[in-house]
Amino acid sequence: MIRCFPLVLVLFAFCGDPLEEPAVAKYREGLKADQLQGFDAYARNNCHGCHGLNGDGTGPLNAGHRYSIPDFRNADTFRNGSDVSSIQHSIEFGVKNGKTGMQAYQNIPVEKREKIAEYIHSLANP
Ligand code: HEC
Questions:
Q1: Quick check: is 2 in a domain?
Q2: Which residues form ligand 1's pocket by a CB distance below 6 Å?
């Protein structure tokens, strides 16, 4: 029985909903109703790992500025277009085949990618 214990820990780590993490839940409280669906998909796909909860590009996976990441709060910093369809394109195909650190997210259903793109767009256009 004791041998199952590490497995239980691993399952727990992968089953937790990111929206229930206290920092995520707290940030979510400050959002507008029409941002929630997009934010939920953003958080559940761990976009905030690199892009940060507020989109500033300082998520934990970007510790030490390992990547060069635009600030979603400032439309001028986007390199591939800050309108909703350009943002969707970046999510669908990644940036430079993922060599930049931004991979393609074709696993995310298209309606969710659209919501995420609208959410990111709303950060740059509050
Ligand atoms: C491993 C880190 C990482 C993760 C996770 C990540 N990104 Fe990125 N993202 C980047 C980097 C780095 C760039 C900048 C690429 C470049 O231009 O050099 C980027 C760029 C982008 C851009 C293009 C912005 C522009 O400059 O036009 C969008 C949109 C974007 N990411 C959305 C997302 C979304 C949505 C998710 C989650 C589904 C996500 N990213 C997850 C690292 C990441």
A1: no
A2: 42, 45-47, 49-51, 61, 67-70, 78-81, 87, 90-91, 95, 100-102, 105, 116, 120
pLDDT digits (tens, 9 = 90+) for 99-118: 999 999 999 999 999 999 99
**What separation in angstroms does the CA of 63 have from each of 22, 68, 71, 78, 120?**
20, 11, 15, 20, 21
Whether residue 44 is contained in a domain is answered as: yes
Predicted TM-score (pTM) of the model is 0.90
Among protein residues, the one whose CA lies closest to atom 38 of ligand 1: 47
Range of the domain at 28: 17-124
Summarised one tens digit per residue, pLDDT across range 23-52 is: 999 999 999 999 999 999 999 999 999 999
Q: Which of 3, 101, 111, 123 is nearest to 54 (CA)?
A: 123
Overall number of domains in the chain: 1
Kindly state whether residue 8 falls inside one of the protein's structural domains: no
